[in-house]
Amino acid sequence: YPTWKRTLARRARESQMKRFCRAQAIQRRLEEIEVTFRELEQQGIKLEKLLRDENESPADQQTQWTNQLLYLVQKKNNLMTEESDLMIVVQELKLEEQQCQLDEKLRSYMNKEDTLKTPEDEKAEQEILKQLVEVVNKRNVLIQLQEEKRLSEL
Questions:
Q1: Do 53 and 45 contact (CB within 8 A), yes or no?
Q2: Distance, C-alpha 99 to centroid of its chain
Q3: What number is the average pLDDT over the span 29-41?
């Protein structure tokens, strides 16, 4: 097994582990966001009840509750934005993994001598190349989406 093939295999495993660790971190953060959503929802329900039931409370108390409720809504919106961004990153990681697998398959076909390739091999190589281009285009669309989102936030 030539050194360059071992190096490629090692690099592929390393990048796969990096994607896996990144995906785990994203999953943990999504779970944290879900818990925070529930907590904010409960706090919002309490504040709404206070605002509806306490009509005879001082005006500053009602203003304070209203401000707290608006703060909770703002926090929830920020979390929803973060969750949306994370979901895009998850899609990107899936496409990246798919691209690596297709690269590996394509490389195995391309490393084969042309004289030893069967028509089925050539057809499979072309199909993999076509799939690879599709995956790259999908990743490009996600990157453009992220960039548009970033620019709109500015």
A1: no
A2: 16
A3: 96
Tell me the chain's radius of gyration from C-alpha atoms: 25
- Within 10 angstroms of residue 22's Cβ, the number of other Cβ atoms is 15
CA angle 30, 35, 36 (to 5 degrees): 95
> Mind listing the pLDDT tens digit for each residue in 78-105?
999 999 999 999 999 999 999 999 998 9
Residue 143 neighbours by CB under 8 Å, 6+ apart: 92
pLDDT of residue 98: 95
Block residue for tokens 């409720």: 69
Round to whole Å and give the CA distance between 52 and 123. Answer: 69
